[in-house]
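Retro notes, item 3 of 5
We never archived the inputs for the zinc ion complex last cycle. Fixing that now. Sequence and ligand:
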Amino acid sequence: MPNSRYFSVILLLVSFAISAEAARCSVCKNALSGSYLTAEGKSFCSKLCHRRTLPTCASCKEHVSGSFVISEGKSYCGKKCLNISLPKCTLCAQPLRQMFTINGKKYCKAHADGHRCFGCGLPFDAGKLLKDGRKQCATCAKSAIFDPANGLARLRQARAQLKAVTGIVSASLPKLKLVDRPSLLRVMGEQGHMPDQMTARGFYRRNERTETRSFAGRVVSADTEVSETIFILSGLTPDQFLITAIHELTHDLISETYRPIADLPRDLEEGLCQYTAAMYCRKQGWMQDYITIDKSPDPIYGGGFRKVHKRFGNHNWKAIDRWLRTR
Ligand SMILES: [Zn+2]
Ligand SMILES: [Zn+2]
Ligand SMILES: [Zn+2]
Ligand SMILES: [Zn+2]
Ligand SMILES: [Zn+2]
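Structure as it came back at the time:
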């Protein structure tokens, strides 16, 4: 919040006879005659000379006049010049004496307190209300994924990106279901009751069903049927969808590649899924998304990621692979 103070410099008009030698303008050094001006113990031949002793405006670069504003250590001619220099609200362009920063963008109080998009987390003016009560800004709505075919294409893209991060492709692509928020929380069950429930965007479910046929008390054949489903919140933007899908596909990769070898504690498994998503964000240069993963206060997601990242550093699935196989 800029801290500004108004100042006025009082100029006095003095008029009396002066000895020619003693009195000179403190700026131009010309001799003063008849009437002249004084301010703060100095004499000036004209308003113009006096003005040259005043600070220059940080905005228009002119010398300020009799009254001016000092804000954050800088001087301005007046309110108009001060407002030009102030940051503006991203939405209403109002100059901000009091500023609210959300995801690196600046907002006025009214917009910071108003509704936020479930996707990008930013305040907005134009947008829409989804059936399940989520609010979405017009920018996110433009590319939001509601269509299953579009979702499937993005899931395939996420699988290719996960391969680029880990060097591994899991055997089969899980089924994709785009769901609204209540449905996602329902399938997540217990795991939906997490502190950042509002940010839950995906879930991986794996069911194994073994059917055995026996003859005379002896098992003659056993078939294990595996069904894998990835649930992803409908209406995500392609970027959010990819980050989420990479996380969920990592669950699938772990199930198929490492689960038979090692049973992982939950924070470590979620941490590994966040790790691949975070490495993808770094590759894309999406540092805001990377920071969101890295700084998550959640002990499972944030804590798990930090554990993995501290031990293996960036882009090092090779070492993680070795470690998982020898645990
Ligand atoms: Zn002068
Ligand atoms: Zn100015
Ligand atoms: Zn505003
Ligand atoms: Zn948005
Ligand atoms: Zn997960």
